[in-house]
Amino acid sequence: MFARTRTSSLNPTLTTLSTAVAATLLAAGAAVTGLPGSVSPAAASVGTAAVHCPRGWGSLPQASTGTGTGVVTGVRSGTHPCYDRLVVDLGRMSGTVGYRAGYAKTFTTIASGETRDLRGAATLMVSVQAPAYDSSGRPTYVPANRWEVVSTSGYPTIKQVAWGGSFEGETLLGIGTRARLPMRVSVLTDGTNQRLVVDVAHRW
């Protein structure tokens, strides 16, 4: 098994890492998106080597108050031996990233209040305190398809990613998952570039 990563932008592309590259990343304990590796609850097998996954994730809401001034510049996804991952790129920003993530009964968009059922048996709502537009109101990120922000074909856990809009400094995404499964939210910084990372485990 090897991991894949996918991107979505104004001109979306689909990138599939080669088996050799993915194997190298996994051997180094790194995630496909370049984030520190740790793969979710239980253990999985990659070729003949067992991958041991961290435990202790839950399905309760997670949140953090932020003071950052970044904007959404992209959305990516990836699949790993034990979890699927969604990454929200926030570009160069100062301060910290604020976010809220939690399971909800249904997906509801910002401002318009439109509701929609997403694929899968559970819906994970992810809100990041960063707009998808700059100080002049010009978009910094627009998905090509708001109901299919990234391709999740073949992913064990994430079945759909929908765009909930960006309004008053907040951007919302809905993740349709196979079930209400353990999840982890983290913020990664590379220099002054930050990104919000949401991992959803394949199983309890």
Automatic annotation (TrEMBL):
Domain called AMIN-like: residue spans: 71-202
Leader peptide range in chain numbering: 1-22
Pfam family, one: AMIN-like
Keyword Signal applies: yes
Keyword terms, alphabetized: Signal
Presence of keyword Signal: yes
InterPro entries linked: AMIN-like
Top-rank taxon, per record: Bacteria
Entry protein name: AMIN-like domain-containing protein
Organism (species): Arsenicicoccus piscis
